[in-house]
Amino acid sequence: MTRGKKPTRKPTPRAGATDTKSASSGSRPARPGGPRRPNPPRKDAPQLDAPPASAKFRDRDGEVHTFPESALKRLAAQILQERRKVWRYRPFSFPLFTPSGTEQAMYFDFYVYDNMDSVVRLILVTPRESRDVWDRIGRFKQQYPTYSYELWTPDALARLSNPRARLGF
Hints:
This protein has a domain of 89 residues: Endonuclease, Chain A (3-Layer(aba) Sandwich), CATH 3.40.960. It has 3 helices and 8 strands; from the N terminus they run E-E-H-E-E-E-E-E-H-E-H. It has a 4-stranded mixed β-sheet. A two-stranded antiparallel sheet has the order 1-2.
């Protein structure tokens, strides 16, 4: 026996047992706790006072939006409206090219305009930051470097909903 190392045993197959997974397949056995959830809920998420689902918001063109499916988008629209920013909701997409050469459309949620009808800021509202979101934003930054964007998470919305907060644009 060598010093400091434990002897290793090789498993021996039992008689009558059939191995459905071969060791060369590279697959792992299932986790004991079930499948892993990609984004577990946060325990320290800020409590946001979102407008009711029936609240109506007018964009730059006078079109009415309600956002009944997303409290975060209602809060973002309320912040933009209170700060008298001229915005539109998803008017057009940006084509992004992936490393494999395929094209995918990237939509930002709010497009903020200045008085010359130029896009000043693109806002993406998301419940949490994830690798997928940052991959798309990284590709967007690489392919459209002239546009300014912001990622509004619940933390950012809580900070911006403060009456003394500044948007910076």
